[in-house]
Amino acid sequence: MSRTSTWGRIRRIAVGLAVAVVVCQTASHPPAACWAAEHWTGFQGPPRLERSASEKLPRVWSPTQNIAWSVPLPGYGQSSPVIWDGRVFVTSVSGGMKENCHVAAFELASGEKLWQYDQAAASQAENNNYVSKAAPSPVVDADGLYVLFEGGNLLSLTHDGQLRWQRDLVKEYGPIDSRHGLAASLEQDDKQVFVWIERQTEPYLLAVAKATGETLWKAEGLGATSWASPRVVPVVGGDHLVLSGIGRLAGVDPATGRRLWLFDQIANNSTPTPIPVDNGRFLIGATEGRGEGGDAGGRGAAESNGLVQIERGEDGQFRARFVWRAEKATCSFGSPLAHAGLAYFVSRAGVVYCLDLATGEERYAERTAGSVWATPLAAGPHVYLFGRDGTTSVLKSAAEFTKVSENRLWDAERPEGTAGRPDAMGFGGPVLYAVAAAGDQLVLRRGDRLYCVRAAAEQ
Question: How much is the average pLDDT of 437-449?
Answer without folding.
Answer: 95
